[in-house]
Every structure is written in structure tokens, then in C-alpha cells.
Amino acid sequence: MKRTNTETNVKQAVPFFAVSKMQDSLRFYVDGLGFEMTNKWIDEGTVRWCWLQRGGAALMLQDFRREEGESWSPEGKLGLGVSIVFICDDALEIYREATAKGIQASRPFVGNAMWVTSLRDPDGYGIEFESYTDVPEDTVFSEDDG
Length: 146
Prior knowledge:
The chain has helices spanning 22-32, 91-100; strands at residues 16-19, 36-43, 46-54, 57-63, 83-87, 109-111, 114-120, 126-132. By secondary structure, it is of the alpha/beta class. The radius of gyration is 18 Å and the shape is globular.
């Protein structure tokens, strides 16, 4: 079927992260950041792959196995140099939710007309939540600001 100029073939980009300990990653993303596991592959009683969703955003995690049953990991640090930015309605709300659940997040600031808060998952992947604002550039969030 041929597409018209107004139709799009590509619908969504979904990051796919190799993780060293699936349970640690699930605690971070599901328990800490409020993602929902909407699909999973269980192998020998363990989640080896999953699709996580929060609103319109998704990511996939996979706990790679070696032949001796241990999880695979590369020589270097997983996540090094990799970041994903989630554009949301209210990054400050995400910051409050995450920190209330014990997740360490950077103090939000305004950059490029957006509130920005940054986190690192258990494997070092950079996770950022950003939301548009009319607050002046370089403003740093304070709970007193609301």
C-alpha cells in the first residue's frame, strides 16, 4: 500500500537497554518512576525482557544471559554516554514522585524553556524528564516555588 505525503511509516522510537540486574531495573522504573510492565518474556522463572510504558512513552529492558546462566554485561559500564529524554506535561511532578520513592534525581532547573530533572538508572543510563515552562532560564527549583 502506497502512503500519501501526510501519512507516516515510522510510528515510535523505543529505547532498548541491556541491564545487568533486571530486578534492580524494575524497582527503578516500575516502583520508582511509575512505569507499567505491559509485556514480558519469562525464561526459567525470571523476567529476561520486558516492555515498560508510562503514558505515551515506552522502553524495553533485557537481562542478557551467558551460557553458564549469569547475566551478560560488556567490559565497560552499561549506559555510558546513553541518555533518553522524556517530554512530559510536568517534570516537577515526576521529580516529586521519584524523590518521594527514594530515587535520586537532580534538582530541576530551567533550560531551553523547559524544566529539566535528570536521573541515572542502576546501570548508568541517563534518564531526563522535561516539560515546557515560561519560568525564566536558569531558574533552579525550590519546593517553596510550588
